[in-house]
Specification:
The protein has a single domain, classed as Rossmann fold (3-Layer(aba) Sandwich), CATH 3.40.50.1950. The chain is globular, with a radius of gyration of 16 Å. Helix content is about 45%, strand content about 15%. The protein is an alpha/beta fold. It comes from Streptomyces oryzae.
């Protein structure tokens, strides 16, 4: 049986600094992990990128591939966009795809790839009028948004708790999204 492939797509929020642990947790759960990062997140993790590539067995991507270049990753079974910053959530919902992570996530909606996101924003960003609209847009598009009770709960600006980011919940939701998609395909087929 083919391995389940998780595209773990991280953005520049403090929980991304633990991404090596998340890759290991996902691998223990049976995922073949392909790690994608926003350019800023890749910059934050510059010193760790070679070890992350060795750990995952795939190149870490933060840019689009060149036209005609073969894809270095196997096809995704599911994608988890986490931590998803304010900028990424809004760009994704609006279809602004200048970043590889956002472009993949936007296209995955149309391809029917199970998608989960867990935003990581402080309470001030969460009060911006666009943010709830973007979350609702993603939910209507079929993305599982783990925000609020049972997901990420914003804290006051400057009071981040990156060690409490609910990564385990995000990985569980990715597995559930795959299971639900398989059940839906059986019902429809």
């Amino acid at each position: 049986m083919a391995s389940r492939v998780l595209y773990l797509l991280g953005c520049a929020a403090p929980p991304v600094l633990r991404i090596a642990d998340v890759v290991a947790d996902a691998q223990r759960a049976g995922w073949d992990v392909c790690l994608g990062l926003t350019p800023t997140a890749a910059h934050w993790l510059t010193d760790q990128l070679p070890a992350l590539e060795q750990q995952s067995g795939h190149p870490v991507r933060s840019r689009y591939k060149l036209p005609g270049q073969p894809d270095a990753w196997p096809p995704a079974t599911a994608a988890l966009v986490a931590p998803a910053t304010f900028n990424t959530v809004n760009q994704w919902a609006l279809g602004v795809t200048e970043k590889f992570v956002v472009g993949f996530a936007a296209e995955a909606i149309g391809k029917g790839i199970p998608l989960v996101t867990m935003p990581c924003v402080n309470a001030a960003f969460a009060r911006h009028p666009q943010f709830p609209h973007s979350l609702e847009t993603l939910r209507r598009a079929g993305v599982r948004v783990l925000y609020g009770p049972g997901g990420f709960v914003p804290n006051a600006p400057g009071e981040g708790r990156p060690d409490t980011f609910p990564w385990a919940r995000a990985l569980t939701a990715a597995a559930e999204a795959v299971d639900d998609a398989a059940e839906g395909a059986q019902r429809d087929g």
